[in-house]
Each structure stands twice: as C-alpha cells, then as structure tokens.
C-alpha cells in the first residue's frame, strides 16, 4: 500500500480550479519534492491531504485511508507543517508537544521522551520551557518540524518549510531535512527552492495550473534535461561585435551579455554539444576563462516544463 | 519508522474533547482574560456593595436583587471574552494549521472549546453569586426566600451557556477576532435589548429573545414575581400621557428560551465550524 495516493483530485474555488484532475502516487520511504510556480495548486493539494480543505471531487488516501471520509484515522500517522503555522503563544514548546501528543494518543512517558528527542533534533532544547509567543519565525518553524515528527509518523508533509526564513534559518531547516532523510519517513515537500529540492529529494513532481506535468526520480528527470543555460567568462571585453559573432554559432539561443566580460546563452543538447560549443567559442578567437552551466539542472527542467505548459 | 505511531491508539472523541478543554482553559488563565474578568467582577461587587451597605437594611431579596440586576451584564462581558473569538482565532491566528492536521474531529475541538468557555463562565458567575449571597445575607434585615438567590444563580448559569453558544456562533462565521468580539458584545448588550424594547413599546412581549429571557435572573428575586405585562403611564405636561409596557418573562418560559438558544446556537456554530475551510 503506497503512503500517499491522489486520484483525479479537483478543488474548485467558485469557478477557479486550483487543482484540476491531479493524480499522484508517492512511494514508501521516498522524499518527494512537489514543485510548481505560485498558484500552481501545491498548497491546495497539501491542505486537502491534511484535512484543511475539502476536495470538490477525486480522492486522496494516506496509508490507504480516505482523507475525506475518515480524516481522524487518516491523520493518525501523519505529521505536517503547512504554510507557516502559528502556535498558541501562551504555551511553551514542551506544552505544545504535550498537547498534540495527548491528542495523538501518546502516553505521558512517550510525550516526555519524544519531546526531549525532537527538540534536540531541531536544536530547541534551550527554549523548551519558554513561551512560544516571543519566538522568531525560524524558531517557530523548528518547533513546527518537531511537532510533525514527534509521534514518528510514517508520512510527513511539509509545505515550503524554509519559506520566509533568513539564510541561517534556511540552512538550519535544510540540515534538519537531511537528518529526516536518513530515517525511513515518506516525505512529501513542496518548495520553491530548486537547489534545496535537488539536494534532498529522491523524486520530484512538477505541477502547474493544478495539473501534474511530470514526476519521477530526480536522476531520471535530470538525465532528460536537454536544454541548458550556459554561462561564459572570457578574458576579452564582450561588446556588440563579440555578441554578434557568438550569436552566429550553431546552437546558440537567447544570448545576452552578463557583465563586461561575460555572457549567457541557451544551448540545446547534452554534454557533447557543450564540448563542441566550447571548441567553437575558442575557434572564433575567444579566450574562455570559464564555461559552465548556469543555475541548477532541475531549475532548467522546471523552467522549460512550465514554459511548455503555458 | 512509525513504531511509535503504530503503538499509539488514537484517543476517543470524548478524551480528546477533554484534552482540548484542558488546554483551552490554560489559554483563559494565561491570556489573563479570566483574571481580567475576575477583576471586573471584583469592581462590580465593590460598587454594588458600597451602595447596599450604605442604605438602611432591606429584605434579603431586595439586597440580592441589586446584585442580580447586574449579573446579566457580567455574563455578557464574560461570554464575549471567553467565547467571542474561540473559533475565529484558530483561522485568523493560523493556529488551525497546527491543530487541524491531527487525528481529532472538529466536533471534539468545538466541544472542548465550548466546555472550557462554559467552565470559565461558571467560575465567574458562581464567585459573583457566592459573594453577593454572602454580603446580602450579612447586611439584610431578614433571610427569607434565600432559595430565590439560588434560582437566580441557576438562571444566570443557563444564560451563560446560551451566551457562550451565541458567542461561538458569531465566532464561527466572522473573519476577524476583533469583529467577532465586538459583534458578540453588542448583540447581547445593545442589539437584542433594543429589539426587546421596540417590541415592549407596542405591547408585544419579545418572548423568543435571549436577552428578554435573561430578565428573569433579577425578576426571580421579586416577591411576588412581577406580572407578565405591566402598564406604565407617564404623564407628560401639556401632552397628555405616555403609555408604555413592561414585560417580564415567566421563569419557565425564560428557562425554555435559554435552553433553546443554547442548543440552536451551539449546533449552528458547530456546523459552520465543521464546514469552514482553512483557505486563507
């Protein structure tokens, strides 16, 4: 039985279909990155899975239990961080974990032991007995992750867990995600940060306008990337004449200058085409100081898929 | 993986209701609303006591009537504070993102919050009547009809439950906490009593009104119990007479109306809460 199964899911907000016939299966033990631009339907899908929105049609199952028909049972082995949750400001992290632990049926001893463990995991032990009302967004996000893993759920759903955090907070959360990956959770995470997804996820699902564009293992998808954004630095100053020469080369598209001695362009093809292009650039007399792919490969795939879908 | 999750048996709905109630009471305590309410109560008791103790000794029912006449105001303020934003705060404050993805039914969350508000109200009302009965017993010229003070307390508690229901109902459809608190307060303090007043002017008893029914809290201490309709004629110099009507709800009618309000508002509030989505 797969931990997450979504079939023909539709959510219609008064004529606007935020999710439009989405079908997706997440395999056990997978860390899946759920990608899409703003308004693609990621958060809506997650809210349906976490009992916050009702689907207009279709179905969503967690561990074989229909989220719509039996949300209480479906939520029992789920841990979730949706959007940026707020906490009851009058409770401490320990009290918050005790509250949620009690609702989830954990014994007092489990609650005590696991609270200490998960707060240690998210590096919040020092603040375990301070009221959350005064915490920063990063600290709250860490407590949110702690409550999501508190009861050792089999499925964890994370909705842009690094959203709104400063670089330090993002790095801390990313470190926690890497720790979670070492355990055998099934993790379903939406994110805008493609380098983050490429770093921690085994599989990705791309959606746009509520529809699934593509899904599969990250390595397979990256292997299928055929369009690359190349970034070149030269020893010469890149003026209009140079740009004109470069644009004449076979395979160069969307060329533009990038600083006084650099330029970027799109190249269709794989590594052989990149090697050929490097030779061509040198062939026209350009002293190439660096020649590399711009951005992450997943970003290129993402952008090309989104472009194709519109 | 999931060894603890599989070992956990999700508690019964009633146990989860008690858990929600427990932590909601903690909210009332730590948010200082309960303390603030008790402070307001203390001020009211001191003011009324100052008036009562300064006068010549009156019968118990008259002294106690002075306290009971302000009990409904106390209930209104308390219901506003404890129930006026109980539901909406989960949505506006985004704490629903934390609470809803848990194996707990909306009915348990609703009932837990309802019970915590009612318990806080009971505490406030019982303390108020306890002190009022004590002072009245000490300063009155007699101790006759002591049981009427307890009848008044019973009506005040019933009114509290109905007012909590109304507060939860308002809270279940309003978008913001402040608006919800204001609407709850003005519904009970101004809007419903104004409607009652208009009906009374035209000699039509506003029997189904909750605030009209709350009139029985003080009326029950009148010996004998006031008539259902009384006519008051006010002579206006050179303009003849102004005739108005004073309606008093019979006790049993008041009890039925309050129970009906408590049930209908609570059920409506629950259904609205159950349907409400975390869409923002």
In a nutshell, what does this entry contain?
Chain A is 36% helix and 28% strand. Chain A has helices spanning 42-49, 71-74, 93-103, 108-121, 137-149, 167-182, 194-200, 218-223, 240-247, 271-283, 297-309; strands spanning 4-13, 16-26, 31-35, 57-62, 65-66, 78-81, 155-159, 186-190, 203-208, 211-217, 227-234, 252-257, 262-268, 288-293. Residues 1-5 of chain B have low confidence and may be disordered.
Can you describe this structure?
Chain A is an alpha/beta fold and 310 residues long. Chain A is 36% helix and 28% strand. Chain A has two domains: 4-220, 3-Layer(aba) Sandwich (Rossmann fold), CATH 3.40.50; 227-309, 2-Layer Sandwich (Alpha-Beta Plaits). Chain A has helices at residues 42-49, 71-74, 93-103, 108-121, 137-149, 167-182, 194-200, 218-223, 240-247, 271-283, 297-309; strands at 4-13, 16-26, 31-35, 57-62, 65-66, 78-81, 155-159, 186-190, 203-208, 211-217, 227-234, 252-257, 262-268, 288-293. In chain A, the strands form three sheets. Chain A has a six-stranded mixed sheet, with helices on both faces. A four-stranded antiparallel sheet of chain A has the order 2-1-4-5. In chain A, strands 12-13-11-14 form a four-stranded antiparallel sheet, with helices on both faces. Chain A is elongated. Chain A starts with a strand and ends with a helix. Chain B has one domain. Helix content of chain B is 70%, strand content 6%. Chain B is built from 13 helices and two strands. The relative contact order of chain B is 0.14. The model of chain B is unreliable at 1-5 (pLDDT under 50). Chain A binds chain B through residues 13, 29, 47, 50-54, 71-78, 80, 82-88, 90-91, 95-96, 99-100, 102-106, 110, 114, 144, 147, 151-154, 157, 183-185, and chain B through 1-6, 8-11, 16, 19-20, 23, 26-27, 30-31, 93-98, 100-105, 277-279.
């Amino acid at each position: 039985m797969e931990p997450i199964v979504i079939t023909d899911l539709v959510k219609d907000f008064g004529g606007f279909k935020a999710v439009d016939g989405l079908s997706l299966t997440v395999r056990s033990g997978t860390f899946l990155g759920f990608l899409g631009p703003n308004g693609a339907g990621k958060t809506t899908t997650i809210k349906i899975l976490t009992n916050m929105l009702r689907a207009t049609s279709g179905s969503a199952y967690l561990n074989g239990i229909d989220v719509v028909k039996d949300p209480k049972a479906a939520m029992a082995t789920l841990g979730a961080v949706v959007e940026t949750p707020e906490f009851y400001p009058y409770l401490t992290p320990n009290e918050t974990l005790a509250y949620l632990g009690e609702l989830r049926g954990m014994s007092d001893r489990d609650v005590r032991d696991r609270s200490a463990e998960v707060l240690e995991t998210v590096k919040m032990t020092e603040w375990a007995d301070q009221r959350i009302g005064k915490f920063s967004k990063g600290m709250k996000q860490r407590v949110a992750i702690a409550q999501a893993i508190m009861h050792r759920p089999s499925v964890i759903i994370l909705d842009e867990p690094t959203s709104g955090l400063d670089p330090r907070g993002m790095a801390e959360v990313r470190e926690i995600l890497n720790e979670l990956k070492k355990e055998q959770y099934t993790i379903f995470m939406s994110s805008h940060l493609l380098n983050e997804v490429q770093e921690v996820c085994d599989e990705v699902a791309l959606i746009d306008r509520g529809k699934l564009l593509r899904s599969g293992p990250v390595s397979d998808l990256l292997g299928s990337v055929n369009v690359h954004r190349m970034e070149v630095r030269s020893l010469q100053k890149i003026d209009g004449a140079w740009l004109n020469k470069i644009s004449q080369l076979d395979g160069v598209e969307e060329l533009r200058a990038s600083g006084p001695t650099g330029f970027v362009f799109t190249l269709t093809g794989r590594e052989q085409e990149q090697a050929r292009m490097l030779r061509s650039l040198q062939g026209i007399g350009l002293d190439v100081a660096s020649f590399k792919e711009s951005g992450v490969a997943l970003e290129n795939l993402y952008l090309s898929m989104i472009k194709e879908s519109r | 993986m999931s060894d603890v999750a599989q070992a956990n048996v999700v508690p019964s709905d009633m146990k989860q209701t008690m858990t929600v109630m427990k932590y909601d009471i903690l909210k009332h305590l730590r948010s200082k609303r309960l303390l603030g309410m008790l402070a307001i109560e203390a001020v009211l008791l001191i003011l009324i006591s100052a008036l009562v103790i300064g006068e010549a000794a009156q019968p118990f029912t008259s002294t106690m009537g002075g306290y009971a006449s302000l009990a409904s105001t106390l209930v209104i303020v308390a219901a506003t504070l404890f129930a006026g934003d109980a539901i909406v705060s989960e949505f506006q404050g985004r704490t629903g993102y934390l609470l809803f993805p848990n194996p707990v039914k909306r009915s348990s969350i609703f009932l837990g919050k309802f019970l915590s508000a009612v318990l806080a109200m009971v505490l406030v009302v019982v303390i108020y009547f306890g002190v009022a009965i004590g002072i009245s017993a000490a300063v009155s010229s007699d101790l006759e009809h002591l049981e009427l003070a307890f009848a008044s307390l019973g009506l005040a508690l019933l009114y509290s439950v109905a007012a909590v229901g109304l507060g939860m109902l308002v809270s279940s459809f309003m978008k913001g906490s402040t608006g919800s608190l204001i609407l709850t307060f003005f519904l009970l303090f101004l809007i419903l009593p104004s409607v009652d007043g208009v009906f009374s002017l035209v000699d039509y008893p506003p029997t189904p009104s909750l605030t009209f029914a709350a009139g029985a809290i003080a009326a029950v201490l009148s010996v004998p119990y006031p008539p259902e309709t009384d006519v008051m004629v006010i002579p206006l110099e050179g303009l003849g007479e102004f005739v108005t009507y004073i309606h008093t709800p019979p006790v049993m009618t008041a009890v039925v109306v309050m129970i009906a309000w408590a049930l209908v508002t609570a059920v409506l509030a629950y259904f609205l809460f159950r349907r409400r989505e975390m869409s923002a």
